[in-house]
Each structure stands twice: as structure tokens, then as C-alpha cells.
Design brief:
The protein is α/β, with parallel strands linked by helices. The chain has one domain: NAD(P)-binding Rossmann-like Domain (Rossmann fold), CATH 3.40.50. Helix content is about 40%, strand content about 20%. The protein contains eleven helices and 14 strands. Strand 1, helix 1 and strand 2 form a beta-alpha-beta unit. Helix 3 packs parallel to helix 4, helix 5 crosses helix 10 and helix 8 packs across helix 10. The termini are far apart.
């Protein structure tokens, strides 16, 4: 059985359905803050639980863990730094310790796939110029933003636990910014929000200089990467970090590409506007995905075009309601403020 923490989330809801389609037994542990996207299934065990207080029973019968749970972007991490630390570091450590203890008790290896991020490579620079250094897994990293810092601290904790227990098999997937359709949809990710704004306003706004680099990854490629790592030889992945990236785009280039896809496919004219006020968009990192291709034979091949058209078609069908831009469920920070933190500071 495979445990997927945060399995009702943006990536998890796609991954779990794929694992079930492959015949796997899956246990999902999720706070269900956004509800459940799953229909009842005889091989799905859905647990409403908080990873900050994990139960050893959640690991009964588990061979592998895909740990997706946690806060997932800079705005939520900056808004709720204490929750960010608890969810992204403490909960990761707690679950890993339970897994390591079970592995030792049962004399059976348990692999632990950790959802890290390419943003661990970003650190502030003294200029507004885009950073064109190609970042690889071997480079030293010292992120300073709340979100990426907790992801790196969690990686360090996993490696420390692995040093103490040889049957604990952690692997870190440093994913690019994900895009594409999901049963638990998000419109607070760059390609997704560009598509939404193109559909709703026929206008995309690029904040800042627009020259910053972003590594991108289709959600289906993210899912395929997890499945690939679940089946990869243990000796090739234990204690390793792998960047998972399709392509690096400059933000302004990405905006124009989204408009071109829409204009060619639907004949809709979408404008791009640049807002140079402030320093928005200065965060920049260019990431190589060569290691996972070279060592494990995996490549992320899906591009932006199919994802944009799939999202546009879903918007046209009304899959997200008549006004998705105004629905906080599709925006993590807005939903967090209106649910967990409703009334705080009022």
C-alpha cells in the first residue's frame, strides 16, 4: 500500500487517481481543507487527519510514502509562518520518524518521496537582473524565503533520519512550478492564472521586469515522476535530490506564449501589459533537470500548449463555476484567510 499525504490537494488528487488506475492500494491522509475530490473506491482509504499529529496506524501495511502535505507557496508561507514551519518541517519530520521506526521494526525498507521545490535554489541578489546560472542538485543552497527555507530544512531532517536508519529511503523531488488541470484546481500558479486572466479579461499583466526565469512542470509529468520514483532501484535514489523540470521560461516570454496558444487555437486576441512598478517578479532561477534523465531515464516532456487549451476548454464548459476568479477555493492564500484564519486580527 502507498500512503499519500496531502493526497486531496492539487498534485495529490491527480496522483491518487493514477495510482488507483494502476491497481495500487492507496491511503490518503489529508486535512481536507479544500474538501475531497474522490468518489468511494474499494482500494482507497481516505483519512481526515493532520500530519502535525500523525498516528502510527496510518503506516499499517505501507511500503512507500509520497509526502505532498504542507503549505505550498510563498504567499501562504509568509502569511502564516508558524503554520508553514509546523506543516513543512515538523510534520515532515514526524512522519519520517514513524516510517523509519516501522522500517526498523519490520526489517523492511520504506521509501519516502518528499515534495520539495526548485525554489530552494533562489536566494536574493543585489540586482534586478535575471539569474542565468544553471542550478543543479550538486550546488550548495541556502534559501531565505519562508517557503523554500522550510522545504530545505525538511530535506535536511530526512537525510539526518536516513543516516540513523538504513532502511529508511528518502528521496527529494525538487519540482518546478506546476501547471495544468486538477480535480482540486488552483489558479494561483503562473500558467494557470495567465490562462484564467486571458479567458476572463483578454489581458495578461506581467509585474516587474518580466525577465526572471521560472522552471515549469506539467502536473501530469509531476505525477509520472512520483510513479517513476516509486519503482526506481532503491540504491539509485536513497538520499538523492532530483530536479523535475520541463523547461525554463522567462515570465514575459511565458505570457506571450500563452497568448499565442490561445490566439492560434481559439482566434481570441489577448494583450500583454507590463506593470513595472515595484520589484515584483525579480525572483529568478534557471534549473537543470538533467540528473533525473541521466540517472533514472525520466524526462518531463509535456509542454504548456496542451495544458492551456485543456484549462481554457474547462473554463468554457463552466467546470469551475461562472466566476472562478472570485472563488477563493482556487487560490490557496485566499482560502486560508477565509477558513483557518477567518476573523483573526479583525
Amino acid at each position: 500500500m502507498i500512503l499519500v499525504s496531502g493526497g486531496a490537494g492539487y498534485v495529490g488528487s491527480v496522483l491518487v487517481k493514477e495510482l488507483l488506475a494502476l491497481g495500487e492500494e492507496v491511503r490518503v491522509v489529508d486535512t481536507l481543507w479544500f474538501g475531497s475530490p474522490f468518489a468511494p473506491h474499494d482500494r482507497l482509504d481516505l483519512v481526515d487527519g493532520d500530519l502535525r499529529s500523525p498516528s502510527p496506524a496510518w503506516l499499517d501495511g505501507i511500503d512507500s510514502i509520497v509526502h505532498l502535505s504542507g503549505l505550498s507557496n510563498d504567499p501562504t508561507a509568509d502569511f502564516a509562518p508558524e503554520l508553514n514551519s509546523e506543516a513543512n518541517v515538523y510534520a515532515t519530520k514526524q512522519l519520517a520518524q514513524l516510517a523509519a521506526a516501522r522500517a526498523a521494526r519490520e526489517s523492511k525498507a520504506i521509501r519516502y518521496l518528499f515534495a520539495s521545490t526548485c525554489s530552494v535554489y533562489y536566494a536574493p541578489t543585489t540586482t534586478d537582473e535575471a539569474n542565468v546560472t544553471v542550478m543543479t542538485e550538486e550546488m550548495p543552497i541556502a534559501p531565505t524565503a519562508n517557503y523554500s527555507k522550510t522545504k530545505r530544512l525538511a530535506e535536511v531532517e530526512l537525510l539526518r533520519i536516513a543516516d540513523q536508519q538504513p532502511l529508511f529511503v528518502p528521496v527529494m523531488l525538487r519540482k518546478g512550478t506546476i501547471f495544468g488541470l486538477s480535480p482540486r484546481m488552483r489558479f494561483d500558479l503562473v500558467v494557470n492564472v495567465f490562462t484564467l486572466h486571458a479567458w476572463r479579461h483578454k489581458l495578461l499583466t506581467v509585474h516587474g521586469h518580466g525577465e526572471a526565469w521560472r522552471p515549469l512542470l506539467h502536473i501530469r509529468d509531476a505525477v509520472d515522476a512520483y510513479i517513476h520514483l516509486l519503482n526506481a532501484p532503491e540504491e539509485k535514489i536513497r538520499g538523492e535530490a532530483f530536479n523535475v523540470v520541463h523547461k525554463n521560461y522567462r515570465v514575459l516570454e511565458l505570457a506571450h506564449w500563452v497568448t499565442e496558444v490561445i490566439e492560434q487555437k481559439y482566434g481570441v486576441d489577448v494583450r500583454v501589459r507590463r506593470d513595472r512598478s515595484g520589484n515584483a517578479g525579480a525572483r529568478s532561477y534557471f534549473v537543470s533537470g538533467d540528473k533525473i534523465a541521466r540517472e533514472l531515464g525520466f524526462s518531463a516532456d509535456r509542454g504548456v500548449t496542451d495544458a492551456v487549451t485543456a484549462m481554457w476548454d474547462a473554463l468554457e464548459r463552466g467546470d469551475f463555476g461562472p466566476e472562478p476568479e472570485g472563488d477563493p477555493r482556487f487560490f490557496n492564500i485566499r482560502w486560508l484567510k477565509e477558513t483557518l484564519f477567518a476573523g483573526v486580527g479583525a
